[in-house]
Amino acid sequence: MIKVKFCGLNSSAAVQAAARAGAAYVGFVFFSKSPRHLSIEKARALAQETPAGIVKVALTVDATDTFLDQLTENVPLDLLQLHGRETPARVAEVKARYGLPVMKAVGVAQASDLTKIDHYAAVCDQLLIDAKPPEQGILPGGNGLAFDWRLIAGRNWPLPWMLAGGLSPETVPAALQMTATRQLDVSSGIETSPGVKDQGLMLAFMAAVQRHQTQTT
Question: Which among 52, 61, 196, 201 is placed 20 to 30 Å from 93, CA to CA?
C-alpha cells in the first residue's frame, strides 16, 4: 500500500477533503514566508478535527527549542518534519527532547547530494527526499519542482522514506515507476493557487496512485 501525505493544509475544508481522499498523513506548515503557514492556534484547531488514524505532521524550518516547545505543548502531533538546514546532531536532539518521531527532509539536485541521506538515516525515523530548492528560492519545499528521479532509482534506505518535489496527478505515475517509493508527499501539485488546496486534484492524485498499484500487483 502506497501512503500519501498531503502537505500544507490550512483550512478545515482541506483537512476533511484529505481525509475523504484517503491521505495517510496531513502536513501543517510553520514557516512564515510560506503561503501555507499556520499559527499555532489555527494548527491546533485543524489537528483536533483531523480524523483518528491520520498522522498529523508539523513541518518546521530551523525551528528553535522555544518555538518547538510551544508547538508541541499546544498542538496534538504525531510526527515532526524538519525541513531546514538542521544537522544530524540537531535532528537527534529534537527527537530526544520531544519524544516524537522525526522526519528529516533532504534536498537533492545531483548525485553528490545523496551522501547526506545516510548521515540523517542514522538518527531520524523517516526521510523525506525532496528537490533541492532554487539558489534564490524563499521556500525550502512546496515549489513544484522535481529532481531527476533516476538518481534514486533502485535505491533504498533502512527506514521509511517519502518522495517529494514536483508531484501531481500527471507526474506521479512516472515517479512511482522510476523510484518504487512507498510513500509520497505532495503540496503544490494539489493546489489551484499557492496555499489553496483542491479536492478534485486530491482525488485525481489518489486515483493515479491507485491505478499504479493496480497495474503493478
Answer: 52
Judge whether 43 and 58 are in contact, CB under 8 Å.
yes
| Tens digits of residue pLDDT in 117-171 | 999 999 999 999 999 876 655 555 455 678 999 999 988 899 999 999 999 999 9
* Closest alpha carbon to 91 in 107, 106, 76, 70: 106
CATH number of domain containing 9: 3.20.20.70
Whole-model pTM? 0.94
> The domain containing residue 147 runs over which residues?
3-215
Residues whose CB falls within 8 Å of the CB of residue 217, separated by 6 or more in sequence, listed in order:
none
Q: Which is nearest to 108 in space by CA: 153, 158, 165?
A: 165
Number of domains making up the chain: 1
